[in-house]
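Notes continue from the previous slide.

Worked example: a multi-chain complex. Inputs as given:
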Amino acid sequence: MRGPELLVKASVSPAAVPASRPALALLDLSISQRLRRTEKRLVTHVDLEVGQGEIVGLVGESGSGKSLTALACMGLLPSGLAVTGGDVHLDGASLLGLAPKAFRALRGNAISMIFQDPLSSLDPCARIGAQIIETIRAHKDVSASQAKRDAIELLDRVGIPRAAQRMRAYPHEFSGGMRQRVMIAAALVLKPRVLLADEPTTALDVTTQAGIVELVRELCRELQMSVVWISHDLALVSELADRVAVMYAGEIVEVADSKVLFRVSRHPYTKGLVASGSIRPYGERFSYIPGSIAEPGTWPTGCRFAPRCERVREECVGEHPDFRSGTTTVRCVNPIEYEAE
Amino acid sequence: MTVSIVQLLDARKVFRGRRGAPDHVAVDDVSFEMSSGETLGIVGESGSGKTTIARLVLSLARPTSGHVYVGGIDVGAASGAERKRLPRIVQAVFQDPFASLDPRMTIGASICQGAKRAFGAQAAQAALGDLLDHVGLPQRYRDLYPHELSGGQLQRVAIARALAMKPDVLVADEPVSALDVSMQGQVLNLLIDLRHEFSISCLFISHDLGIVQQFCERVLVMESGKVVEEGVPGDIFRSPSHPYTQSLIEAIPKVPA
Amino acid sequence: MTMTAPQIAAQGTGLKARPSRFLILFQPHNLVWTIGGVIIIAAGILGIVLQLVPSWRHLYLTQDLTATFQAPLSTGHVLGTDNLGRDLLWQLIAGLGISLMIGIGVTVLSLVLGLTVGILGAYFGRTADAVSNVIVDVTWAFPAILLAVLLAGAIGPSVTTVVLALALTTWPGYARIVRGEVLSLRERDFVNAARVLGVPKLVISVRHFVVNLMPITIVIAVYYVATAIIGEAGLSFLGLGVQAPMPSLGLMLSVGQQYLNVSWWPVVLSGALLALVVLFLNAFGDFLRGRLDPHGRVPRR
């Protein structure tokens, strides 16, 4: 195996964390924007558990609240936004109740995040190597030469060729895909328990994306790291993740094993997304979901997808639907049912 | 034999490297023909030169060498009178709908901007109602500003603006990649309808092979400025012959079976 | 058609009633500025009107050699009189009017020159850019006072001298900002779309560049009026600008300081008004800057 010993001994010993307890748990999480007199709800009652070593995909279109959910887990919500309900647990311990200083110590250490645009997360005027060494030494008491060795090992591990030489390069000298690998390396420096990945491949070409996806999957297996992969691409997430949660208008509408979600999506929105992304022969019309996503503040009281739903019934409009279980867990009063297989 | 509406003949575009950086060959002696009424796709990754080809066809860039013919006009060496005819031959829809409309211009003014020059203010204003109908936007939108519309609606406005010139060719550079997945189909179906209705040829530039094979009759696969494969999309995607095309197709996320 | 019009209408984000961005002017902590601003603007407008209506000029021109150097709050003269017995309040109002007119004149001239040269340089080819860069660099290096001395020598000291000297040395800064903004605007797709639509460069310049430059231009204009008022005061103080009997804040300072041992109030009053006006204009510019230029493209004062 190419992976350095450094990373292998990284994972928290399994005895310390019972397999049954999720590494990351979002418990009834709600996020709002504070306005002068009222609050605008942006994310409501999100429940999601991510097991140790599990990859969970969080899928949604722009405005669904998926990125805010991840930022809330990191305690990095933009000013004006706040968690107004629920909690986030890391290994069973509350994150949001922590003092800012304690949270800062965990951030990057136990829970880490990578973003869509790696260039804005790297200092353009500092060499890649220096940035990673600085991160290592900020959290760990190691010698400069040891930190340098660790950094080279990491860059090598995330697939950067000639890592030792590339340590001296500046961010702009890397291609988009290589930069994203550097970001992953920086996020993995302290072997986090949980990695939040917010559309890390959206700006990249498909072939580059494939490489990053493969890398994250390997690292996840190797380090028993939990990953929340946020994307608007249902196909990508289904290929990568163990489970997929679909968000629409600030809430989760369907959670399912990624192997079944595509075949038996029960929420009409998921079904519509699957159809929109599917490849059909030349000349056929494209599928789409009529209308557009309801902006926060204009959500209907009933099912938020009802105005765009072709299966809409009277009870959809009146009452906000709860989750129903079945082959998938779905927030819909009239889910699509499938013949028993 | 149909007439070719767009033709590139050994077209080459080189961007001069600044401060000692090497020159960048964006388009490397590319030749292709597009016949009247055809829908031709160009796929490739970033840096493959597909957008530069769009800019050459739209005369937003001049070829360093070679020729670009649009409607029989050599755009690199066109006379003033020929240049004036180009807007009525070729029109464009760009990637980012929020950037492609002036934020301080009403939707109606944007749509009529070129048409009032080409057909007169009155004719352009008279056609505006029909155009909004064609792209499926309500009449009251003509007085709104871009920030009041969604991305999908703005892309319809951009299409209406192009149609107002009654062009023969529409160059669509990643027209849906900035839109949400569930909205892309709306705009693509609109393009399909208009293609049939107005018999417009379409040069469709995309990185999404799935959309290209459903939308285009013929496709060029580009890699670092060169066309590496050409043919019917369905055939190419089923059995790609060039290794680059193969790697592109393998990289598409596969839905778990 | 894939969708009916009502369906699309339903998906529209729609117009939302937004509270006016300028409502904040009337919040308690801004009220002092607002009231002060209104008083200064009113006085300025009155001063400009005084210049335009000849029959009103006697208000500040009437001399009374029997009542020179009256102290403020003396009978008939709220702020007292000057060395020729003219009413100081009216002198100040008229002087403010002249100063504002010069400030506005300088600003308009600078903006027109800066817009023209900036857009020419950024959008009309490499030769135009090279030429305009040379012009901008040379004029920027030229001191306003030197130009004013030269102009005063050539055409005599006057309002025209002040306006020309200040405008010709102010515009290059704005031209630089315009050039930078247009360089980024011209890469935007709506400009590409306009080119593909066959819209001529001149029309693109006016319809897309000038219109989109308006917000930052308004902010800059306010700053420029303040700068020009100070410049006018300086040049008039040196005798290169406004000539008696036309009043101006700079001229009042200049004349007043000759009689400083007799009466201090003409100097103090005109100096204080000058400081207040400039302070207010800069604060107003900062306020507009926060509203109109959130990305900080205009250099801060």
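Summary box: The interface with chain A takes residues 45-46, 150, 152, 180-186, 188-189, 192, 207, 210-211, 213-217, 232-234, 247-248, 250-256 of chain B (CB under 8 Å). The longest strand of chain B covers residues 4-15.
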